[in-house]
Amino acid sequence: MSEPRRFDLFASCAPGFEAVCANELFSLGIANPRTVPGGVEFRGFRTHIYKANLWSRATERVLLRLDEFRAITFKELQQKAKQIEWEKYLQPGQAVAIRATCRKSRLIHSDAVAERMTNAISERLGQAPKSTPANGHDQAAQPPLIVVRVVDDVCTISLDTSGTLLHFRGYRQAIAKAPLRETLAASMLLASGWTGDRPLLDPFCGSGTIPIEAALIARHIAPGRQRRFAFMEWPNFNRATWEDLLAQADQSALAKAPTSIHGSDRDAGAIEASRANAERAGVLNDIEFERRAVSAIEPIGPGWIVTNLPYGHRISEDKDLRNLYAQFGKVLRTKCAGSHVALLAGSAQLQSQIHLDFGEAIRINNGGISVSFAQADVK
After folding, report:
1. Three-class SS state of 37
2. Each residue of 210-241: pLDDT tens digit?
3. Which of 88, 93, 358, 368 is least surrounded by CB atoms within 10 angstroms?
4. Do 143 and 190 sit in the same domain of this protein?
5. What is the pLDDT of residue 315?
6. Nearest to 340 by CA among 187, 190, 180, 193
7. Average pLDDT taken over every residue of the chain
8. Residue 144 CB partners (closer than 8 Å, separation 6+)
9. 89 and 17 share one domain
């Protein structure tokens, strides 16, 4: 009997949260995950591909490394790509999306690289695939994504196992201003050290993403439980293994969060959106949402405050935001002594208005905006 095959895999995540992602993968039984800029490299079996997509809260996409080889001509690229066992992952004539990038290589035209990849798949499967752009959030409509990177004449070919990016959990349809990606919210919670057994408050909850992700963590609910993945369309998809993983996930879920989780916002529309999203996620009863200005938040006792503060993009907003950040800091010191704070701030200058002893901040990108993630204990 042959040994199960191990695959080379890559989990992408928000830069700055690679260690969080690696810790998650290790907890799923993946040995020696290795952090690199923008994600985590690891080796795993087919079960680990399924588990990483189902359970990882910080990962945006899981890529399967199909092959890596040197190529200096397009003919060589096509011949070597043809040797990949495409029949395990694609149907003849199936639509695919090919994303190619080239750097410091003799193969400098990404469109030509994509064309030769299409030819290689066609020769292997006996029918030309339909090429389609990798756009849209409709999981059912997403074609398999093939990622080709040519760097220093070395070609790396990967297949997306996830489909729609993993931050699309399926529950967030009502969106308030400046929405926070689900994966980023979960990364903040995990990086803060919150484990679901202490009270938690988000006083700028927007559409409720942080409290909802907190409830999913506290109840041990798999974040991918309600969605589909690209690997489910592969010819070699093992449905029995997948059904076993889903059954295990359902058995591990708690009926109720073991601690109190609070979300507040001064905007009534945000609170309405938060409740609608929490209901779709199945955690509405685990979260107390209230319309409150930050000055009116109630103490939660020693616990965690995890939040995404307004950033401000216009010079005219700076003074108002400085006042808001200062007021937030005063409320923390007055009402939340003994708590741990983890937040996203628009700038170091704004963060300094809070007047807490923050550790070194991590610069991250949120929706194209450079912001900082920082933590402090409230004395």
Report:
1. coil
2. 999 999 999 999 999 999 999 999 999 999 99
3. 368
4. no
5. 41
6. 193
7. 92
8. 89, 90, 94, 95, 96, 97, 159, 160, 230, 233
9. yes
The sheet carrying 7-12 orders its strands as 34-36, 39-44, 7-12, 61-70, 154-160, 145-151, 97-103
* Residues 144 and 275 placed together within one structural domain of the fold: no
State the amino acid at position 175 in one-letter form.
I
Q: Tell me, what CATH number does 105's domain have?
A: 3.30.2130.30
Instruction: Report the chain's terminal Cα–Cα distance, integer Å.
Output: 61
Range of the domain at 322: 182-219+254-377
φ, ψ dihedrals at 16, nearest 5°: 105, -20
* Pairwise CA distance, residues 58 & 362, whole Å: 15
List, for residues 99-153, the tens digit of each pLDDT value: 999 999 999 999 999 999 999 999 999 887 766 655 544 544 579 999 999 999 9
The answer to whether residues 72 and 108 touch, using CB atoms and an 8 Å cutoff, is no
- DSSP lists the bridge partners of residue 290 as 264
Q: Judge whether 242 lies within some domain.
A: no
- Name the amino acid, one letter, at 177: K
Cβ atoms of 264 and 328 within 8 Å: the answer is: no
